[in-house]
Amino acid sequence: MLTDQELLRYSRQILLQHVDIDGQLRLKNSRALIIGLGGLGAPVALYLAAAGVGELHVADFDTVDLTNLQRQIIHDTDSVGQTKVDSALRRLTAINPEITLVAHRSALDADSLAAAVSAVDVVLDCSDNFSTREAVNAACVAAAKPLISGAAIRLEGQLSVFDPRRADSPCYYCLYGHGSDTELTCSEAGVVGPLVGLVGSLQALEALKLLAGFGEPLVGRLLLIDALTTRFRELRVKRDPGCAVCGTQHG
Ligand SMILES: [Zn+2]
């Protein structure tokens, strides 16, 4: 049940017929795992905490650096030198003390990643490198958990949702195949803050839709954002029956 305080706190989204009290209760009983508390993970964590997702699991093994603050808006100047997890927990608790926060402070290996993914209802990949994204995707396919994947670099953003519970859904590997970490990351190539904020906000929105059960998720579609011209494009993405990660699962 929702307390009077919760009814008031979340009243502006409960007002929406698509959410209502049932949807808010579903959010309260939901658990989300956020991998990475950088430029994407910052708005994801802030919005999911504010919206009342009952359990937020956050994973990051990095510390806050001064160069992060231009885009990683969950951290502030006083956070520099702290772990990103501790910095984020302080901010998330201040925003919403009603929710439960679970911290993963060390790098996740295959076993701990599988356990972390199994413990939640949805996973948000907010990391900045291919090897993490591939490992997270494999864990989500194995545990049949939906994965909301976002990326932003320079002035381009990408977003898609992979849902292994659906037979028609591709996985991250169907789309990208085996990537290479020789690709530049944001910290090497540069990125504008509002673009990662935009992609992260859309990831949070997709999570709320999946968890509360409304709308049409971005499954089988890849959203491409060109910040330079403010143009959004959408590509259809099909499941690859021969995919090395999800191919055998569905036969
Ligand atoms: Zn696949």
Summarize the structure.
This protein is 37% helix and 18% strand. By secondary structure, the protein is α/β, with parallel strands linked by helices. It has an eight-stranded mixed β-sheet with strand order 3-2-1-4-5-6-7-8, sandwiched between helices.
Please give a structural write-up.
- By secondary structure, the chain is an alpha/beta fold.
- It has one domain (4-236): Rossmann fold (3-Layer(aba) Sandwich), CATH 3.40.50.
- The protein is 37% helix and 18% strand.
- It has helices spanning 4-9, 11-14, 20-28, 41-51, 84-95, 110-118, 130-143, 172-176, 186-189, 193-212, and strands spanning 31-35, 55-59, 100-104, 122-125, 147-153, 156-162, 221-226, 231-236.
- Strands 3-2-1-4-5-6-7-8 form an 8-stranded mixed sheet, sandwiched between helices.
- The chain is globular.
- The mean pLDDT is 95.
- Residues 170-171, 173-174, 240, 243, 245-246 line the site of zinc ion (ZN).
